[in-house]
Amino acid sequence: MQFHQLEYFVAVADTRHFTRAAAQAGVAQPSLSQQIRALEHSLGAPLFHRNRGNIELTEAGERLLPIARRVLADAETARQEIRALEDLDTGRVRLGATPSLCTGLLPPILVAFRQAHPGIELVVHEGGSRDLQTELSEGSLDLALVIDSRLTNDSVLETIPLFVEDLVVVSPLDAPRPVRRSRMDIRDLEGRPLVMFRPGYDLRETTFAACRAAGFEPTLAIEGGEMDAVLEFVNAGMGLAVVPATMVRDRFRGTPIAGPGLTRTVYLASRRGMAPPRAARALQGEIVRILGETSAAGQLPPGVRTV
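Request: output the structure for the sequence above.
Response:
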C-alpha cells in the first residue's frame, strides 16, 4: 500500500467518478485506475462497485475510507508541524464548532487570535456535535468545540471541559408567555408543538431525553433545522424550542427550566494520542486563556459559567 494510492482512493470515493478524481489528483485517468487496482490487489478485496455510470464503495471500501482519511490528515499534520517548527508565522487551523458557539463564543476569541497570529489561516466548520466528533476522529479537523457528556469516556478524543450553559425554552418576544410562572417544567412541553433540530445536534438529543424522562414523547411542529432556521421558525410562531440561554439576546423570550433544569457542557476536543499542529495548539491555549480571563472579570454571558 502506497500513500498516493490512498489519495487516489479518497478522490474517487469523494467524486464517485474516476475521470473527475484523476483531474482532482492531477494525474491521468488510466494511471489512477491502475493504482486503484494495485491497491485493491494489495488489500485482497475490491473497493468499488464499477457499474456503468455509477461508482459505489464496497463494504471493504467503506471500512477503508475513514482510515485513509486519517492517514492523509496525519500526513498533512506532519507537514504543517515541520513547517511551523520555527515560528507561528504560517500554518492553518481547522476548527469545528456548533452554530450557537460560532455566533456567541468564537468571534471575539478568533479576533484576538488573528491579531496575534495574522499569518495563520483559520478554517471554521459548523456542525452538530456528533458530526464534529466523527470529523475530528477521521482527521478532518484539528480541534472542535463540542457538547456531549459521553466525551469524557471517548477512546478516540481528548477533551478539556470549558464551561456550562443553561438551556431555556425560547418563544417569540411579542407572544404571550408559554406559562404564567417564571420557570417552566419539562412537563409543560407535553402536547406543545416544538421546533426541532436535525439529527446530529446535541440539543435535539437533550430535548428528546428530557421529555421521555418526564414520561412523554415531544410533539414536533417541524424538524431538521440548523440553529438560525430553528430560531426563525420559533419567531414565526411555529412552536417552542430548547436552546442555550446565550441565543435569546433581545430577539426572543427565554423561559428558564425549573430545577434541576437542563444544561450542556462545552468541551474543547482533539484526537487522543495525536498532538494537534502547533498553530492549533496556540489557538487551544488562546481559547482557554480568554475564557479564564472573561470568567475572572465576571463578564461571561448570563446562563454561562466555567467548569
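The chain has a mean pLDDT of 88.
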